[in-house]
Each structure stands twice: as C-alpha cells, then as structure tokens.
Write a structure and sequence with these properties.
The chain is built from five helices and no strands. It is an all-alpha fold.
Length: about 200
C-alpha cells in the first residue's frame, strides 16, 4: 500500500445561491427612469397640434343683457395682431433681371441639346429628363408682365418638343426632326429674353 493517504470525501450540502433580486429591481428601475425621461423630453420638445380658436380669447366679452351697469373693464392682455391672409404682391421683374435669372438655364438647355445630338439610348434620355427638370425651374421663375404670355407659350412649345424628343429616343427612331424642333423652341425663348 501506499504511504499517502487520501482524504476521505464527504458530501455536504451546497451553500444557497445569492439572490439577484436587488440587481433585477435596479435594472427595472433604470429602464423606467429612462422611459420617463424620454417621455418628458418628447412632451416638452414635440409641437402640439392644439391651436387656439381665432374667436376664442380668455377675456370676457360684453353681454347683451338689459342691466344698467353694463361696463367693460380694460384688460392688460395685449391683443393679437391681425393675421395677413393674402400673399404680398409679387414684384414685376424687369426684362434685364429676368434675363439674368433664366440665362444659365437656357445656356444649359442648349448644351444639353448638343449632348443629346451626340449620344443615343438611355444616356440621351437621361439628358432630356434633366432638360425637362430645368424647364420646370424656368416655368417657376415669374416672367415680367410685358413678356409673360409669350414666355408661357414659348415654354409650352419647348416642353412639347422635349416630350417629342424623349418619345423619339425611347422608340429608337430618328431624332433629327424632334431635335430641330427643340432647338427652334429654345431659340425663340432666347430671342424673347434678348440672349
């Protein structure tokens, strides 16, 4: 036998696991606190949909009762300023100022038509789409009243010619006539503003 004696093993009950109730309550409490802070911040910083009625005010109004002491006391609250419901009048620009506003777009349109004449397929279609977007910007620029009618008619003609050009490109047919029509419509707009 060996001289080394091995210790005798005995089974003993395991000590109980420590309870985590404190940690759980701490986590729950922190989550509730964060949600409460978020709720307060949303309440303070989000705009409310409530608007006061224009006719309702916090001041008493005189009644039509048949009493002898019908007096109204002045209030210290300031009255609301009148709300302007009409848009301010649009200033009619001069032809020179209008020319300055539209000249870059008209120049870009001429360049775009040159690009379309040198390309084909989807590349040309995307250029025409950009020209139609620029056309919308031209239409949104108020024209002087002296050329307003001619400008609107010219824009309509140019828009139709761009639509015809896009249709010809999409169909894969000849674009020469549509391109010439777009250039002529653009030239009439240039002539109208004096470019």
């Amino acid at each position: 036998m060996t001289d080394d004696q091995q210790p005798e093993l005995r089974w003993a009950p395991l000590p109980p696991k420590p309870r985590n109730r404190g940690r759980i309550w701490l986590i729950v409490g922190l989550v509730v606190a964060v949600l409460a802070i978020i709720g307060v911040l949303l309440f303070l910083f989000l705009p409310r949909a409530e608007t006061p009625d224009p006719g309702a005010s916090g001041t008493p109004s005189p009644s039509a009762s048949p009493s002898e002491s019908a007096t109204t006391s002045p209030t210290a609250e300031p009255t609301d300023p009148p709300v302007q419901t009409e848009a301010p009048p649009v200033v009619d620009p001069s032809v020179e100022a209008f020319r300055t506003q539209v000249a870059p777009r008209l120049g870009d349109a001429a360049t775009g038509l040159d690009i379309v004449s040198g390309s084909s397929g989807q590349d040309a279609v995307s250029v025409v789409d950009q020209l139609q977007f620029d056309l919308q910007s031209l239409a949104d620029t108020p024209a002087p009243s002296s050329i307003s009618t001619q400008w609107d008619e010219g824009l309509s003609t140019y828009s139709q010619s761009l639509t015809d050009l896009r249709d010809a490109l999409s169909a894969g047919s000849s674009t020469a006539a549509a391109l010439d029509g777009a250039r002529a419509a653009l030239q009439s707009l240039d002539d109208l503003v004096g470019l």
